Amino acid sequence: SQQGEEDPQALSIQEGENATMNCSYKTSINNLQWYRQNSGRGLVHLILIRSNEREKHSGRLRVTLDTSKKSSSLLITASRAADTASYFCATMDTGRRALTFGSGTRLQVQP
Amino acid sequence: DAGVIQSPRHEVTEMGQEVTLRCKPISGHNSLFWYRQTMMRGLELLIYFNNNVPIDDSGMPEDRFSAKMPNASFSTLKIQPSEPRDSAVYFCASNTARPKRFYEQYFGPGTRLTVT
User: How far out from the chain centre does Cα A82 lie?
Assistant: First the structure.
């Protein structure tokens, strides 16, 4: 079953703008990950944040984690048309190795 | 590194037929995961193996579904008999208990199954 609720479900922005996606979850987690899925393709890992971390950066990506609110956000800065894809958060529960995925945010970046 | 390999990429079959999906994980990885993606239910974990042993199969929908991992380089997901509601994209993923790379999963391209 899905754990995460992602918000918004769909987002359309112009190239160069920032895109922010949010994820909420329900259980105690070891880490939270973000994945990207291009249409008709498999998922690609973007970034992982551990439960004892609050913020992490990787290139144009910034992830925050608030374990007290059981929520995370993914910020993509200076978006490009190539960033058009669906973005999923996934949580790894404490003591478990499998991931539970959220419902995803469809991002459309207009050139 | 060839990545996770899945076959077939597309499968169209009639209700009642047996379907076998195949996965070759990345060499050296010791965990393998099967997921199913549908519009209605999103991405769901079906089963995962650690060192070829099934660890959690609580996501397998019913007895029509079975999965095996006879060795470290091959896994199958079988549906018998198939039903139209099994239509979905099935993903295989793998990873390994390596420092700093322990948790990241590598996904295959998926098998799109259509049951008519």
Answer: 17
> Cα–Cα distance between B47 and B77 in angstroms, integer?
9
CA distances from B50 to A88, A97, B92, B96 (A): 24, 9, 14, 9
pLDDT at A1: 39
Residues 77-96, chain B: which have Cβ within 8 Å of A? 91, 93
Helix (H, G, I), strand (E, B) or coil at A34: strand
Tell me the pLDDT tens digit for each residue of B42-85.
999 999 999 999 999 999 988 999 999 999 999 999 999 999 99
Q: What is the pLDDT of residue B16?
A: 97
Phi, psi of B16 (to 5 degrees): 95, -15
* Chain B contact for A1 (CB, 8 A cutoff): yes
Are A2 and B56 in contact (CB < 8 Å)? no
CA–centroid distance for B20 within its chain: 10
